[in-house]
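Technical annex B. To support the medicinal chemistry partners, we prepared a structural model of the target in complex with KG4, based solely on the information shown next.
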Amino acid sequence: MRTLAIETSCDETSIALLEGKRPLANIISSQISHNKFGGVVPETASREHVRNIMNVTKFAFEKSGLKPDDVDVVAATYTPGLIGALLVGMNFGKSLAATLEKPFVPVNHIHAHVYSVFLEEREPEFPFLSLIVSGGHTLLVLVNDYFNHRIIGSTIDDAAGEAFDKASKMLGLGYPGGPAIDRIAEMGDENFHKFPIPEFKNKEEYNFSFSGLKTALLYYLKNTGYETMSSQDRGEITPHIAASFRTAAVKQLLNNTVRASIDFGINNIAVCGGVSANTLLKKEFFKLRKSGYNVFVPSTEYSTDNAAMIGITAYFSFLKNNRNAFADSLMVKAEPRLNKVLF
Ligand code: KG4
Ligand code: ZN
């Protein structure tokens, strides 16, 4: 089965071509025009998808060596995301499917992050715990089988990626903030300042909260007169502040996941979404292997938004439940089963 997959939910225009589960091409065009605004401008994102999508698709065909007629299934992200941006990919995908007379598979972006770990050679066995950490979501999910998910924890305020982006803005490190903080934190001392790590009273809760951490950073910067410091002084302490912030954020993610793994008796842990590209996060989760855990984190290409993860999720969705449903109809609506487990 050859899948052409489309991802346009936010500020990445991405097209992938897969043969079964294996990506033959995964082209990602990141929109840098948002950087000067310190965040994604939805209207601009849609317009850039319109501008880029044909070229990115051509590039993907060139790289894969496939021709449009080789495609068996077309898939695109249908939710969650910026509506204007989603519409570009959905309509492009549906039109392509109609032209090629092939089925169209709508894919939930969060499901795609969960199944991104299957793009790697070592795949998790079911059941596994999936920690989804992206710019808009922070969820801890028990994955019992393909598309059999149970959310056991989620953020009660900011998402992990959002916290990194906001912290980066406060430290003047620009957007996107996660990679910027990660890079500079590598040169800092994580023990420089102790930022709070929230604990929930109810032991069976595996929720997350990042707004306290964000506020603690804001007050720390105010109290130390960070904004009025000389650029040399600022340059000296910024790596330490970034490292301390990153440690608090990662520890919270790690502590909750490990606690859930013990309570549920599951030693397969997957971490996915943009924040799973974080250097410290990977280091800390990989350390768990020494204690008998199987830990799965996608490579950076598959952590941040990409169409290969849409393609592999469409592949599982198509083969597992929906082959007939999809094959019968060119324009399939969101499959009811998928709707039920929408995050
Ligand atoms: O999954 P993703 O690409 O898009 C969404 O679905 O939201 O995640 C983007 C988020 C951004 O907030 C970005 O700052 C964060 O992932 N991110 C990182 C790193 N790379 C990307 N956060 C921490 N460390 C990183 N290395
Ligand atoms: Zn994402």
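Notes passed to the chemistry partners:
The longest strand covers residues 22-30.
Confidence is low (pLDDT under 50) at residues 324-343.
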